[in-house]
Amino acid sequence: MRRVLMMNFGVFLLFCFGFLSNSFGQDNGGSDINSTTSVYIVTLRQAPTLHLLQQEEEVKRVNAKHLQGSKHGDTSKFTRPNLQPRNISKSRYWRSRRSAISQAHDSLLRNALKGEKYIKLYSFHYLINGFAVFVSSQQAEKLSVRREVANIVLDFSVRTATTYTPQFMGLPEGAWVKEGGFEIAGEGVVIGFIDTGIDPNHPSFNDNVINSQHSYPTPKHFSGVCEVTPDFPSGSCNKKLIGARHFAQSAITRGVFNSSEDYASPFDGDGHGTHTASIAAGNHGVPVIVSNYNFGNASGIAPRAHISVYKALYKSFGGFAADVVAAIDQAAQDGVDILSLSITPNQKPPGVATFFNPIDMAILSAVKAGIFVVQAAGNTGPSPKSMSSFSPWIFTVGASSHDRVYSNSLTLGNNVTIPGVGFAIPTDDGKMYKMISAFHALNNSTSSDKDTYVGECQDYENFSQVLVSGNLLMCSYSVRFVLGLATIKQALDVAKNLSAAGVVFYMDPYVVGFQINPTPMDMPGIIIPSAEDSKSLLKYYNSSLQRDVSTKEIVGFGAVAAIEGGLKANFSNRAPKVMYYSARGPDPQDNSFNNADVLKPNLIAPGNSIWGAWSSASTDSTEFEGEKFAMMSGTSMAAPHVAGVAALIKQAFPQFSPSAIASALSTTALLDDNKGGPILAQRTYVNPDQDLYTATPFDMGSGFVNATAALNPGLVFDTGFEDYMSFLCGINGSDLVVFNYTGVSCSAKNATISGFDLNLPSITVSMLNGTQTFQRSMRNIAGNETYNVGWSPPYGVSMKVSPAQFSIAMGETQVFSVTLTATKNSSSSSFGRIGLFGNTGHIVNIPVSVIEKIASS
Fold this sequence. Notes:
Subcellular location: Secreted
GO molecular function: serine-type endopeptidase activity
Organism: Noccaea caerulescens
Shape: globular
Number of domains: 4
Pfam families: fn3_6, Inhibitor_I9, Peptidase_S8
Strand order of the largest sheet: 8-11-7-13-15-16-29
Protein name: Subtilisin-like protease
Oligomer: single chain
Radius of gyration: 28 Å
CATH architecture of the largest domain: 3-Layer(aba) Sandwich
Largest sheet: 7 strands, parallel
């Protein structure tokens, strides 16, 4: 008997280091459904529409090939089938099939739950054949024993986790030039975003800035629509924003949806979705004006690409997997080319392997449909095995720095200068101001014993204007600021009301491991993010207090300082660096933290201190409330950078499969920083730049995204759906779960493979016992070329690559073998690299990672 699989692990959207939540939505309070009701995702045995359509396409292709062969003789050239049916949702066949599938779902529910009450939330048609339903655990058990049902999974919660980066990535002189200029970069490509929605009124998404000399039609292969609601009225979409939907049935059924705050529409009430969409595909040349200061002009990575939004996450509660799966299914039906997600589990999915969860398996079908899927790695670094994106068919992106820094500083009266952050004007040039701590500026009716939060400067009535006026007010930046219970904006308002000359925020020692982004300030101000620097400031301040000799009471304030201001950027920093919060490999294969033979992350991209568009309704970050742009950090910001580059690749190579796009991104990645040294990684979250080491593939994957080179990779590694199925069937104990998710019987597979046998542009071996040989196959998409092969083995391993040289014509395929032999016993990861150097300039980079090594005796 099949049993209901209770997979109640939470997931969250990676946004500004959001706190993890494992809470579940409320049950429906209906009297006819008992207290154990919840939402379940039910997968049926019958194949989804995508798989049936592809089978029909394959039959047509084989018949056509047979007919051609009978007329002209057989041909040796293999014609690749088109794996992504286009405009399917507009066809009469599709509409009738969709209706038939939905009716079949209804019939199954009626027959299984005779006379009982239930709520069907979604029918999934395209990527998976199934539905989401609100039922009791007893009803779920009844469904699980039906012969039509393959799998039942308990729905789980999800939660929400540039002006310069195009230049740092070399786009204006490189990739954009190759595409014909920024005016057409990404043209004809649709990027789908599963996120918190979008603000359609933002100038980053309007279409009146498009060069009138070029037409800007909706791509013919796209069939999505725009919802019309009171807060997303007709006309919200245009030639740029061509699709917008929202998915919230699971949340509504649970009673956690707040329509006034969450918006029952594609409109973004959070800000995160607007931000990520603008990074990937926002218009070129949009002025970034924050607090009335112009920080330059913004551009997306693929500014001519189209945007389609699938809102499945919400400000007040996050979201639920059933809504996310429905969003993925719809995006694939609509015909998006690229899909960008920042959704990851907050703990490893239970079961046979981390790859088997509803979201990853829906994405596998999306990849089969020809959609390239980008996912954020997670903000859970820097510990090993902190990776939160697992599957080899998903392109996982970690976060790096770039070389732009907005520096602010505080110069003390003892000639010590303390670095800080804050978009603030300076104090008067050449003038020092007295500093006064909030604890020493209280009025007679306020006591720090009664108000433990008085140091945060949140209440004007606590302070004496006589003491503060004309001085720098010192406020404590506590954990409450991180939680949103106290705000910079409120402290600035208090300081202005007290006629302070400026505000200095020093770090509470309990605030560790949080990224403090520069914050807009409408008066002189600074945040000192280092606890050590904050101690130095307080030591100077306390030593400068003037006290009565007998009473020891404070009678004067001797500490003085000047705020230098933080509006000007400098571009001298060493970059990129892997940020401390970026999740690290090795890729955990299961909940027991066994290692997978798959490299994660795949790549790093700019994710720290990124300007992006901001929703007009967002109150998520009070410091940017009411602004059109905000600066955010996280792997959520890194992923859309790569989604944008993927759009440029898709534009240049429309027939590229998802694996070919992934290969182009990976093999061309940069290994060195802007100073010519190896890319470094931050090791700790306390003073991260003081503890750096050379980044490994488990920190940065293949390296830092190189947009220009990715448009001319030379060789590509192809991997298809059948390869992934052979990999999944090769996992011990996976036969039943593979069948339940895909309807494919592993017993029908002639052979299974391990992760290191997948034709990926990397080799990752969790355990090397003696000697093993691996093969990779590459296809030449450039002209005829001769390659020399070089390699450096991982420590404790000998390596041989064959052939050491080869010539390959355009369109041909070359196979090479890599033999690894463990020479030392070790459980420590070590890393090597294979380089293919073409005589016309192509360089193909293949990282090699070996974790445990057992030498032959």
